[in-house]
Each structure stands twice: as structure tokens, then as C-alpha cells.
Amino acid sequence: MKRARRRKPLYADSDDDDGTSTPCEKHTHIDWCHRDDRTSVHTTYHELPASPNKRPRAASMPSSFTMPSLVSLDCSSSLYDTNGNVIEELEYLYQQFQLNEQQSDNTAVRERTPGDRPLLQWIGEADAYLAELLRLEGRGKYTAGICNCGSREGVFRCDDCRDIQLYCTECVVRAHLAHPVHRIRQWATDHFLRVSLKSLGLRVQLGHEAGETCLNPVPCWGDDFVLLDPVGIHELGVDFCGCETALPHHLQLLRARWFPATSINPKTAATFGLLEMFHTLSGQSKLSAFEYYAALARRTDNTGTCPPKDRYPAFLIMIREWRHLKMMKRAGRGNDVGGINATQAGECAVHCPACPQPGKNIPDESWLHRLFVALDANFRLKRKKVSSDEADPGLSHGYAYIVSEQVYKAHLAAYDQELIAMSSNHCNNHDAVKLATLKNSAGLAATGVVSVDCARHGMKRPCSTGDLQKGERHVNVDFVFMSSLQQNTPEEIMASYDVSCIYDKNFNFRFDKYGWDVSDHTIEWAIPKFHINAHRELCRANYNLHFIPFACRYDGESIERLWSEFNAAATSTKEMGPGSRRDTLDDIFGHHNWGKVIMLPGYLLNKIKKGVPERNAQVCAFRDYTESLPVDAVAEWRTAVETWEADRSQPNPFFIKRPAITQAAIKRQLSEEDADALKAGTAVVLHDKFSAGSMIIVGVELEELQRRLKTEVEALTDHATDIQRAKVQERQNVLRRRIDAWTEIQQLYMPGIATYRVRLISQVEDCYLPHNIPLLLPSAAASFIPCAPSLLQQEWRLRCAQAFDSLGDLRGHIEMRTHLYKFKDRFARGQRANTRANTIIKSVHAKIDADAERYRAAYAAIESLRPRLGSVEWREHLRPLLQADIRHVTEGDEGESEGRRTISWIWRATAAPAMPGDPQGGVDRSLQESLRVEWCKARARAHRWTEEVQLLQEEMRRTIAYHHWAAGWWTERVGKVHLERPEYLEGANAYARRQAALRKALRDFCVKTWRDVQTWVCLGDPTVNETLPDLQTVTDSVVSSVIEPDE
């Protein structure tokens, strides 16, 4: 895979002495580069100054790391001192390594050379290349016309042989007895013509060695045998052996590595090379059989003047049989006495070596052996109503990844009409629930598939994929999930699903109704990290993978990323019959899984290289944050979060409940305070109808009317009608009269304000217009005239409420806009419908702009009042509103990748700070809530990263253990079948030993790749907070060795 060019560090290996006597030490740094086909290693030696506070040493790092030490992960023997701290050597090495990595980023980029741009160099040689291609169209230097045998004219040349000499008929036939599919050209006076070896008299004799003569040859019936080969479609002259001891014709073809289309009178075959090539191409690029065969036919004849015989139906049969046989062979069914008929459900699947599998790679039960799975549906992998199970039953009946169709249909027939209605009353209206029974299925036998996958490593699980008849109904998901649980799963399961909050509600009730017992499993439900933003706040707290203990750092979205790969096959599989589609998907899933298996060494290594520094940073950040908080508060919070982790029915410490302060509530409070002051006789009455609080309230309302009127005035165009202008003028007049009346009352509570307003209007252009008249509320006037503190406090309270009201309206309008966009994309068709939809969306955009402007006005007023009131609590909830902040909860900031997506702060500003005079101490309560939630989140981050590093080490151990187990399993298959037939016995044993050697090679490669992991994990700050899982305690429980040394 092509990687982006990046700066490369330059290393100097010279031993120049600068005249000082500072001792230097050499340190080894190893870079691993993992590609699809191989892994390369780059070792660099760094000369670093010796630490002034440590003893001299002979080597900076252990010379070798054996596998038992990696598996045991014992950091105490060589990396920790008697006090449990990392020894000073490795601490110093870690600091120098980080310093070197920082310096390498500043290294100058190497200058480009002509070798970096080979295409530019080739352009000047293009004419020479073209001339050579044209030269090959002629005879070159072989123009004498005599064959090497010297007796005949040489006019034939092979396109597939490296030799380009011209030969006679007998010589070219004799040279191609073992190569009957090579393409031959004949020189016809002035150019070459294509001819076939069959036309030159070449006969392929089966049942004998090449060149041998059969005493009783039997020509193919009709003598029109067709062979499919990677270079084309060939018509050959084939003779079967008719001797007394001859094998059946189809076996003679198989012995020649030709795969027959039928077993009775075969007339078509494909070479093993062609089947292997298409098998790989279809798995890697999802190439359809039709496109491949069409390319093969064009490769044979690209002019249309001599098209090859159509063998496309035969090719479909052969490739389907080939896939099935390869799957059975790789699963060891050929080395089992029971053969194919004794295959168990899921036995042919390629398993994930890093996932826990009882009896194979886990020695005991602990949280480290929890299985992480993800559930999801894909509506791209649909199938049309073509063929039937009777006409196309398929070759795999639940042997690999697709569930058994017979058992699946029996379940649907029994419980399809007894569905429990899916309710989303406690959460948002998700499509997975809303469309469960409404999905359009006209003309479709399957609207898609639902699957249960390995969530940590992105692999398909055995017997964990089934068809959907409509949407994501519980009756379908339940069966597939239960089928997956039956495939050798551990006790603890962590399952993520887009709608876990809904699916989990009646889970036990549904399974009891089916008669399924899942009491042996402890299932923890979660919502994937990307999808959780679409859920309500309570769901985001209860099903959040960031908060659930022992969830590590997996995001639950791996199954979503896999669909993009498999969807490439949707265009071909939707046209297939039911059996053919199931077999094809099984093969594609198997190809994907094997690719994941061979990439696991590099994948896990990269994960732990990134995980260790992040773990250290999060642990240190949590420790520092804890030390800055009151001890009694931390103890109370720790008890609360540990109680919730042990029992989810307890109050969730991550869910914050605060009273929502609205503008209407503040108005009510101000009115009640005026009433209390009048009753007590302490109120200053300057107006018989308006109090100071009422004056502030009306001023804020007039400010809002000014903003609306200004928008209407700006919306008037040169082509506005008289009626439109008259309406706007009337609103201006009404607003002017209201402002005049209000300013008279304002003058009573803010003396001197009228004079300043007149001066300001005379200095600013268009300031006399009603929507531009400065109202000069206390927040704007306090800098040049004295204002009573009570007025400042009243406006501050009202402005805070106005800010939160504006944010609430803004969020609602953003949700509306997102819904309208989705509705438009899905249902609007044609110019008329799109125009109407755009008009509505434009009006919502205007409301969003108005909400934002109202919030910014409130925020400016709060910021102006801050120095005079000394309030800072509101800064935890309110921020300056930028245009980039106005986005939906599911949208990230511009330029953010999927893995680093952040939520806009407006979706987190759901609580208001307490108001002055709050008798319940709202400031302290709100601040305490914020500190508690942030402490819980910091603790969760430190826990998840610590768990991630521990689990990655365990996954490495499990991978090695699984390959070791698989090698032994294949070794046990030796000598099990064909005991009476030596040739078959030798082949079966050779295959079993080859597979065992392959697994040992994978095991040893993992050991080599991860040999320095223990050192890397133990580098850095080893001290952790007592609330975090202790690394040594966990690793001591892991079995110290899983591999016996090979003899």
C-alpha cells in the first residue's frame, strides 16, 4: 500500500571527537515497516551521552527477548527495582528516545533525485520503447526463413515463450507438448497471423506422461474440448486414456491439473491457475465472474471476427465448486475420516486468533478474555427474487459464516408473527426501529444481511450472518446473535449495537420465548461511539463505551467499516440464486478473514506503540487532577462510580442533572421578588406600573423586536411592492412608539440616559431608525453613567437565561435543518419538490441565524457585566459562538477525521449557572456537578487506556497461542485418511504438515515482531493511581508460557 512521503531522520554514524571526555553509549532503535506481503526492519544505533547519575553498563538494552518472557510479561525481574520503580537506565533511555524523535521531525527533507521521478525520465525514452514494440511485430533478425532443424521453413513463433525464433510445424508442436495453451503465430509473407496448436496437429494425451503414446487413445466426444486458461480460451485436441487400468475421464483431467466442468463426458475444463487467479481476484477486488470471463474472451479475440466458444455457464459451475473444495481443504475436512458430510456448523470459518476461544488460546477466565462483538445490518447486500433454494440449494449449509438456511427459516416461520413491538419511547426515533417492518422489499428475496462480527479486529465470526426479509427486526437479529454465541464463545461478552438501548430492553424475555438459554453468558451492551451521538443524554451515559468498565478503547464501529469492502460485491451477488450467493459471500468473508490474520502482527504492534504513550499521559493527567481536588469529595465520587460499575441500576455518575434556567422562569422570579419587596415596604417605587425588573424585561423584549424588524427591512428589495413596504413601515411606527414610551420609564431608573442617547443618535448615521435606536440597557450604559447594582444583577440573570434559551432554540433548529436535509435527499424528486424543500430549509437557516445573533447579544451583555459583578461561573457553560460551532451533534469540526471527531460545545451547554440570590446555593451545586462528571471522565479515560494496553498484550499472547494450537491440530490430522492408498495418504499428510509448518511460521513471525513489546510497555512513568488496574497484578495471572520449544 502506498504511503505518504514524510520526513526521514538522518543519522550520523561517525565517531568524531569534539575534544571533550563525555562518555557515549550506543542505543538500538528498531523500526518495523509492515506491508501486505512482507515486513521489513530498519535498525538504527544512536550515540547518546551517558546519564550522569547512573552506573556504567555494557549494553543499553537486553540483547534478546525470549517468548516466555514476552508471554509472562514479568516486568519485575529486569525492569523494576526493589521498590517497584522503573530502573533509571530505562527511564533515561525513554527520555532520550523521545528527544530524538522530536529532533528528527525538524530534519531537512532529502533533495529529490531523478530516480524519484522515473516517469519524467521515461518520457524521453518513450519513442525507443515504441520502436521496440513495433520491431516485435516483425521477424526481427530471424529473416532467413529456415528452422533450426535445417530441413523445413520456419514460420511459427510462440507469443508466450521467451524464444522469438521461427520454427517449422514439427518443431513447434514438439516444443509445446507440455505447453498446449501457448499462443502461436504464423508468418504470412508480410505479417503474423494467429493459429492454434490444434490446427498444427498437437494432441494432448491424458493419463500418460507428456510425450508418451497411449495404445488406446479416446478422443473427446466431438473433438471440441475447450480449456480455460489465464491467457485465454483455447480449443484443444484432447485424447483420454482408454487403457484397461485407465481412470475415469474427469480424474484424468484433475491429474493434469485441469478442473472439469462435469464428471460425465467432460468437454470443458479450467486450469488450476485460472481458478486460483479468479479466486484471489474475486476475494480481493470483488470482481464478478461475468466481468472476468468477458475479459478472458476479449483476451482470446479482441476483434470479434473469431469469437471463442461460450463456456460462461460452465465457468460459473467450476469456480463455485473450486471455492467449496478450497474451503473444505483449508478446514481440514479432507484429512478427517468423516469427510465433507461430517462438517459441523461454522467449522470452515477462518477464526480470529486474537479473540478468546476456550480450549484453544485462553487458560483461564478473567476480564481479559471478554469477547467483543458488534451487531449491524447492511442493506446493500440485497438479493433479487431469482431462482429458489430447490433449484440452487448451495454447497455450504452453515459451514462457514452464513447461518444454516433451513434452521433460520424454521425460526422465522415459528416466531415471525409473534414479534414484540419495538418501542423507542425512551430514546430518539432511530431508523433501525422505525423502518424495521417498513423496509421496501418489492422484488427482493433479501433486503440485506444482519451480522455479528469480531469488534476488536474486524473479522467475520462463524455462523453469524443471515438475510433480512424487511428491516432490522428483532426476530432476525436474535437468531443471528444466538447462532454466534453458540460458536465457542467465552462467558463474558461485550456487544455493541446501534440501538442497544432499545434492543436490550426485552432481550431476556424474547430469548425465553424462543426457548434459548443464555444464562452461561454475561452480556454487556453498548452503543458504538459514532452512533451514540444520535441518542438521548441518558443513553449516552448508560451505554457509552468511554464509561463502561473493561471496554478498553474499542469503538464498536469496525463492522461499519467492513461493509464498504463487502459492498463492492453487491452488484454481482444481488443477481445470484440463494445458494450461489451464500457460497460467494462465504468465500469473500473467508478471504477477508485470512487477510486480517496475516496482518495481525503489524496491526497489534502499531496499536500498542500508540497506546503506551497515551496510557501514560492519561494516567498522569488523572493523577494530577485528583490531587488538585478535595480529598473528601474525591472519596465520595470514587464510591459513587465504583458502585455504578458494580451495579448499573444505581445512579449513573456520568449523567448530570441540573435545573434548566429559562427566560420565562427569570421573569417570574423577578416579578415575585418585586411582589415581596412591595409587601415588605422596601421597594423603590418610581412608576406606578413598571418596576426596575419590568423595565429590564421590556428592554430585552424590545431589543429582540429590533433584531426582527432589521431583518425584515434588509429583506426588502428594489422590487418590493407597496403593500410589503407599507407593512414594514407600520411595524416601524409601532416599534417607535413602544421605544418612546419605554425610554420615559428608563429615565426614572437610569437618570441621564436620555441625554446620552440623543448625543449618540446625532453622531451615528441611520441611528434614528426604530430598529437602530440604542436602548442602552445597564450592560451597555454602566461604563458612562452610574447604575444601581440591583439593575446589573437583574439584567445579568435575564441575559444568562436568554443565552440558554437561545442555545436551546439553536439546537432545535439545527436538528430541524438536519431532518429536512435527510427528508429532501430521500423523498424530494423533481424541480417543484426540490424548490419547495429548499424554501423551507432557507427559512430554517434564517431562524438559526436569528438564534445565533440573539445568543451573541446576550453573551456580549454578560461579558460586559462580568467585571462589575465578579461572576465567573458562567464561563463553564457559555462560550463565544463561532460559525464553526453551529453544527449538528453528529458533525465534526472542519478537517477532523472520523477517529478525532469532536462535538460542538453548544450540545454540552445544557445547564445554567446558578443565579445570585439562589437560596439553595446553586453555584456550588452546579460547580460540584461539573467537577464530579469531569473527574469521572478523566478516571474513565485513564482506565480505558490502561485496559487497552493490557488487552493488547493479552491479544498478542492469544495470537501466538492460537497459531501454536492450530499447528498441533494439523499435526494430529497426519495419518488419518486414505490408509489403504499410499499416493492419497502421502498427499493428505503433506498438506497437513504444510499447514502445520505455516502456522508455526506465523507463530514465530509474531514472536519476532513483538519481541520488544515488554520493554516498550514498561517504559515511561510506572506509578499509577491506586484506583487503576495494576499492570503487574493482571499480568501475573497470565500463563507464562504457551509454546513448547521445537525439537
Automatic annotation (TrEMBL):
<dbReference type="InterPro" id="IPR041457">
    <property type="entry name" value="CxC2_KDZ-assoc"/>
</dbReference>
<protein>
    <recommendedName>
        <fullName>CxC2-like cysteine cluster KDZ transposase-associated domain-containing protein</fullName>
    </recommendedName>
</protein>
<dbReference type="Pfam" id="PF18758">
    <property type="entry name" value="KDZ"/>
</dbReference>
<feature type="region of interest" description="Disordered">
    <location>
        <begin position="1"/>
        <end position="27"/>
    </location>
</feature>
<dbReference type="InterPro" id="IPR040521">
    <property type="entry name" value="KDZ"/>
</dbReference>
<feature type="domain" description="CxC2-like cysteine cluster KDZ transposase-associated">
    <location>
        <begin position="197"/>
        <end position="304"/>
    </location>
</feature>
<dbReference type="Pfam" id="PF18803">
    <property type="entry name" value="CxC2"/>
</dbReference>
